[in-house]
Amino acid sequence: MKHMCKRLTALALALSMCLSLLCATTWAVDETGEAEAVVSASSVTTETYTYINPEYEDVITEDDLVQPSEDEGNALVSAASTIEYCTTIEEAAELMREELKNRTTTITVYYQCSASTGSLAKEISNAAFEHTGDPEEGDYLAHQYGGWTSSSSISVSGGTYYYTITYTVTYFTTAEQEAAVTAKLETVMESLDLDSKCDYKKIEAIYNYICDNVTYDYTNLNDDDYMLKYTAYAALINGTSVCQGYSVLFYRMALEAGIDARYISGTATNSSGSTGAHGWNIVKLGNVYYNVDSTWDAVYRKYNYYKYFLLCNDTFGTDHFRSSDYTTDTFNTAYPMASSDYTLTDDDDHSWGTPEFIWADGYGSATATFTCTAGDGTKTLDCTVTSAVTTAATCTATGVTTYTATVTFDGTKYTDTKTETISTTEHSY
Prior knowledge:
Distance between the termini: 64 Å
Radius of gyration: 29 Å
Strand order of the largest sheet: 14-13-12-11-15
Shape: globular
């Protein structure tokens, strides 16, 4: 467990099932070895909760969720064990998030606080699915699972509430399938050669790859039992998915490339005038975000044209409509949208290689020249030059002054160094 959690050693003295109606006491041993009564069985209460992912509430019911086994939720009445109680929502969410990434079906979180809260299980879950910037977290988790059930055992001692929350989570992919996604992505991302590209070219390369390699899964579209169609695994490994698979894959690939993106859910109206549930992305370019819809643009890609690539809300919003979670002031402040569609710049047409540094005599100044990998353009920038004596001269040995040229281009810092010999000093008698 993480060091953030407060460690308590709990010794549970359980009665047999036939005496379960009698009072039993669980004890916690503090750092000094003193035993303190934590809970009597008569004061233990249990709360259950069922949560269905809103994204899939039209295709999933409570009966579709994985059900907890009969012995889950009994952690408070068990053999002697070491328990680490989290004291903040963030700590508990971090623990849950790691288990979600591992596709762990049964997740137990221990939490202590000074007041009872009936929404604790949901509050921890919400925090666990928040966007963190990690490609395997945030929206990548939030849109690839059906929901969860929870059982919370709650006890009180000395004004402190002790929660044992056991989640049973229904995923759309297995740990083995996620490992396959990670392995495939390593190969794909390397083949796209993104390191030498500007952010626009990175986004374009990822978008092109998805539009070229993923087809819409009409075969399983109406099969409510086939949940894999909603996943990045279906899009990347099987090459066919519905809009969620396209969008979750774009989200992960963009974050893998160091570009922030979000998954947006809502509704969209197609060319036939039919409106239905849909998912797409926003992606950051410069200081603002733009809308992209790789699902629909996969069709236009065949004609070397994109209709839904890097658009502002005014253009994109004529047939795409966000759900309320993505129209709040809080969300709009965190993810400011561009006021107009993206316009290509001269730099967007090039993929720049590593620079060639040219130093002036005496190393007082330097320039860095970037050359397009296609050989059809260059860009020269002035560098910032600093110097430092890295080896002091003595009367018997020369010294060294090191000059460092630094330039930042397209968000990446480049440096080059030169050295100059310092003559020996005079003797000191």
